[in-house]
Every structure is written in C-alpha cells, then in structure tokens.
Amino acid sequence: MEQAADITVSEVRIPFRDIDMHGHMHNAAYYAHAEAAVAGLWRHRPVGPNDPVYLVRKSGCTFHKGLRLDDMARLNVAVTRIGATSLSFAVAIARDGAAVADLEIVWVAVDPATRQPVNVPQPIRDWLKSFLA
C-alpha cells in the first residue's frame, strides 16, 4: 500500500468469489474491499492504552461502472471529516483510471464496555489530519 500526504492507495485483483451469475461484482463486495482499504490505513494508527472501539455509523456507495473478474481495482482512501466522536472516510475505486465507485464510511468512537459514544483520542486526531482530503 502506498501512502501520500492526503491519500492511501491499495490495489486488488477482483476474485471469483466476488462475481455474480451475470459476471459483475456483487454490490456488497464493493463495501468489503473499501473496508479492507480503510483497515489498511487504520493499522498504522497510534495505539493508546484506553482507546475506544469504532463502529460503522453510516455507509453509502455511488456506482459508476461495474467491475468484473480479474479487473485490477485501485482504491484511494482519504479522511473527509474528523468530528468529536466520529470519523468519515472516502474510498474512491477506479479501474484503468476510470471511476468505478465512490464510497463513504462513517465510524463512531465508542467506549468498549458501554458502547456509548466517546471523543476520538487526540493522538488519533493528530495522525488522521495528514490524510484529510
């Protein structure tokens, strides 16, 4: 995975398991690949002793073109918003430079025990600022 100042890029070859009987990638697979790309960014975060856990609060996708078996998809991840208790990510999926899908994923930080929203820790906020789009 490449990393630039404001974007993280990963590539994936579309596997057979993601293809429907019409030869197109299942809609849910776009989310799975987008979440994997965000996780690729997230694994490099600073970790604190009392960090919250993050749950998906909202997600959405705008489809432009369908992917097919063995297509090479390029996923660009950017942070679009750092709120008090939430984080928003944009994942742009492209094939051969053409837009395929744009996804939005919003996480909310919650206390691991109570599952109540809590503030995003300052070290995470500071780290994510370099990925703001």
Task: Summarize the structure in words.
This protein has 133 residues and is α+β, with helices and mostly antiparallel strands. Helices cover 17% and strands 40% of the residues. The chain has helices at residues 27-42, 122-128, and strands spanning 2-3, 8-13, 53-63, 72-82, 86-95, 98-110. Strands 1-2-4-5-6-3 form a six-stranded antiparallel sheet, covered by helices on one side. A hairpin with a 2-residue loop joins strand 5 (86-95) and strand 6 (98-110). The longest helix has 16 residues, at 27-42. The relative contact order is 0.24.
Report Rg. 16 Å
Shape: elongated
Strand content: 35-45%
Spell out the helices and strands N to C: EEHEEEEH
Q: Kindly state the percentage of residues in helix.
A: 10-25%
Low-pLDDT runs of 5+ residues are 1-6
- The helix/strand class is alpha+beta
Average pLDDT metric: 93
Largest sheet: 6 strands, antiparallel
Q: Separation of termini?
A: 18 Å
Helices, by number, come to 2
Strand order of the largest sheet: 1-2-4-5-6-3
How many beta-strand segments? 6
